[in-house]
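Input record (one chain):
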Amino acid sequence: MLDFLPAPVRGVIASLLLALNTILLCSFLFCVALFKVLPFALTQRFARWLMSHTHEAWISNNKGWMNLVGRTRWHLSGLQDLDYRHSYLITSNHQSWVDIMVLQYVLNRRIRPLKFFLKQELIWVPVIGLAWWALGFPFMKRYSKAYLEKHPEKKGKDLETTRKTCDTFRDNPVGIFNFVEGTRFTEGKHAQQGSPFRYLLKPKAGGIAFVLDAMGDQLEAIVNVTIHYPAGRPGYWDLLCGKVKDVVVHFQELKIPPQFIGKNYEQDGVYRLEFQGWINQLWNDKDALLGQMHREYPAKV
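The corresponding structure, as predicted from the sequence alone:
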């Protein structure tokens, strides 16, 4: 443990370890990705297996430097029923960039590494776009409303393309992640929205509905995650410096209502309203749980 060192020194050490971990494992990942393009099922399966474990190794190494620079106390509940063999849709409240590291820290090797739906254009981002492609992140092609008005024959094609992409997950379990709020919570955003919740922004149901539209029949359940930082929302530098002392995380596994599978959120108005109501109720329950967490884990002086 390096907690005897000044926080800025720990932050520099953690930053260097993170950079080194990323450079080394991405370099290895790109080498393995060469096997992914070969037209042989056996080599493709081997490449996917090796890249998935490389992804998990990257997360494990990050857990190592997080434990090295700080003494975070983890207060966890609801993890007991998660199964590494299943596919899940994971969603969470969003307060900080630290949220991603928290989820990776806790869920690594409990379920498959988290993946995000990405816009197709992001595959051209230097280095990181190739890494996302190599790791099997699903890229989706979305058409704007203006484009669809001019080309109505393209309606539904974006979802059809995404479904084909997600077919690769039928024999390869996956953890798909989506922040329903769409952005990090701040008091300014909360006031600007006129959010009816005390600790949350308004949920955006479209993103999670798109995942269910594309691959709902492949998912075991939705994992509804609630994160609370008793000392207040930390920044990423706080994490690097080992200054995140307590993290409270609750996991709730929810079976996907069958009426939400195989529907089109954009084109089915009745389904859209029903789904929005369901998401809003989840957010009401999450807001109440956050209130309970604030009472049980108050800020420590």
